[in-house]
Amino acid sequence: MELKTRRRDLQGRTQNQRIYLKAITGNDINFGVGPAGTGKTFLAVAAAVDAFERGTVERIVLTRPAVEAGERLGFLPGDLTQKVDPYLRPLYDALFDLMGFEKSQRLMERQSIEVAPLAYMRGRTLNNAFVILDEAQNTTPEQMKMFLTRIGFGSRAVVTGDITQIDLPKGVPSGLKHALGILDGVRGISITRFNSKDV
After folding, report:
1. Which of 42, 50, 59, 140 could form a disulfide linkage to 129, CB 3.0–4.6 angstroms apart?
2. pLDDT of 69-83, one tens digit each?
3. Position 163 in a domain
4. Average pLDDT for residues 25-37, to the nearest whole number?
5. What is the tally of structural domains in the chain?
6. What CATH number is attached to the domain comprising 126?
């Protein structure tokens, strides 16, 4: 399966990556779970760009929980956007690589592409959108439920995370772990598990 992005002949290199890309095109909600460097986020963004370029969706929404690995947002300088920007940087990087900086910026100005912290999703319904929740291991079960119930008509969602890299406070359960336990085997939902061979 070849994706329509700025990078020519982009496709999954490993069997799990190919399974993941096929699952994304055939299911409404998709989970990509595994260690860093396996292509979970990059391939999800590539699939989003592909769907947008083909006109399958009207918008791309990229989000992450703003959970700090040890540091506190309040101590960072700037307004909320400037504070959360570093947490969203990997999503911007993938987007710029796959679509080009100028085109990405134009589409963000038109709000055809949105990159925002997870808290900004509350109370919204996202129709005809390709929505990616990255670093989902750092959501609580309530946040995960809130995210999954945002997915509206004509939309597709990809949730990525690594359950070995949870930065939540001690005793707070991971929404990703919780969702995987409940949603495994549900029709229309795919779970692709990556391992070290996919790095």
Report:
1. 59
2. 444 556 667 766 677
3. yes
4. 97
5. 1
6. 3.40.50.300
